[in-house]
Structure formats: C-alpha cells, structure tokens
Amino acid sequence: MARIRLGMVGGGNDAFIGGVHRIASRIDDRFDLVAGALSSTPEKSAASAEALGIPRSYGSFEEMAEAEAAREDGIEAVSIVTPNHVHAAAAKAFLAKGIHVICDKPLTSTLEDAKALEAAVAKADVLFILTHNYTGYPMIRQARAMIEAGDLGDIRIVQAEYPQDWLTAPMENEGVKQAEWRTDPARSGAGGSVGDIGTHAHNLACFVSGLQVESIAADLQSWGAGRKLDDNAHMMLR
Predict the structure, then answer these.
(1) Where are the domains of the chain?
(2) In CATH, what number does 4-131 get?
(3) Residue 228: which residues within 8 A CB-CB, separation 6 or more?
C-alpha cells in the first residue's frame, strides 16, 4: 500500500497536540511527514522541522500550500494542529490546492468561519476530516453497534462527562503557552472548556446514541480569577 505524504501546520517544538498527531501517524504507519509550517515564525518553524527530521520547512501555511501543490512529490494531506483561530484560513488554503485536510477540533473559533469553511469543503474535491478521535476506540464502536442493533432498547438518557484539572490554576499568567491561547477569546473562540473538551463529550454522546441535539440549557463557570472564558460547564441537552 502506497504511503501518504503528510504535511503539518502548527505542532512545533513547544506545542502539545502536534506531537500526539505525529505519534498517531507513526502508529498507523501509513504516513510520511515530509513538510511543515510548524510555528508562527519562519525561524521557529525551521528549528522545529530540523529537530523533528522534517525535510521541508515553510514560514507560513500559505507558502506551504502554494509550494507543495506545485511539486510532483508534494504532500497529499495536511494535518492542522494550530490554535483554533487559525483552523479556517489554513484549511481553506489547502482545500483550494486540492490537498486533503485533517483538522483538529473544534472546527473553527466562530460560526461565521465554520459556515465559510463548510462552503469551501463543498467546492473542493478532497476529503476534510475533523479529528474527533475517540470515535475510533473499539469500546465506543461496540457501544454504538449495540445501540443500533437495539440491544439496549430505547435510549432515554445519555450522560457524558469529560473532566480535566490542569487549568484549575491560572497557568495563563505563568507563561504556559497552552494555557495562554486556550483562555484567550481571540485565539480560542467564544468557548473555553466547551470548545476544547466539551466538543468531545458532545461528539461522543451523538455518535454512540445516534441522537442529535435540538436544544440546550447551559451553566458556564470560570473558576480562574479574571479568566474570560469558561473552564467548567454543566449542560442539559434535548
């Protein structure tokens, strides 16, 4: 089976989720990571590419999309692992060049960007994949299959929970990059914990049950002093 030439936007040396994507691609063993625009500056991107053994480094995703599309051995797919506010623009750049897109969740940081990206995907003759990765776990697949087969009867109540505690302290004030952008509305979007991990809970509830959300009542909280985005949420969905 032919291996897939993969590029990456974001995911440099001081990032988090990019490393997870690289590990997953190696476990899958069907990808060769050959190009990247790994950071917000050309210098940082080049340093990360050298450290990771990635042959081609670019200073921006725009430059990367243009150059890779022009190469006979250019990337066939790109993994976008940037902060949320970059997802839409980066994805559209590669879609326009006929390159398959694997985009980290949440889809975008605004509804307007999400609708524009949906339109771009509809026009492109390539795949767009949003990484709700938990749907691939065997136990999740088994639960979905059992519900589809009627083994559990009518589903009356679905409960989903996703706890994390690393942002209980104000780490955004301590120079922790992952905390800084996740608590910044300009980069994270309007949803804090809801956009970051609540997306997984929502996706799993719908994927396993086969049900779709029609209405919502939410209580959003911020335990961090002065924090602008939610870091805790309780929701009732119908």
Answers:
(1) 4-131, 138-237
(2) 3.40.50.720
(3) 183, 184, 185, 222
Regarding the domain with residue range 138-237, which homologous superfamily does it belong to in the CATH classification?
Dihydrodipicolinate Reductase; domain 2 (3.30.360.10)
Is the pLDDT at 14 greater than 90? The verdict is no
pTM higher than the cut 0.90: yes
Q: For residues 84 and 91, give the distance between their C-alpha atoms in angstroms, rounded to a whole number.
A: 11
pLDDT tens for 212-221 read 999 999 999 9
Phi, psi of 107 (to 5 degrees): -50, -55
Instruction: Return mean pLDDT, the chain.
Output: 95
176: Cβ contacts below 8 Å, ≥ 6 apart: none
Nearest one of 158, 237, 162, 238 to 195, comparing CA atoms: 162
Sign of CA dihedral 166, 189, 195, 218: positive
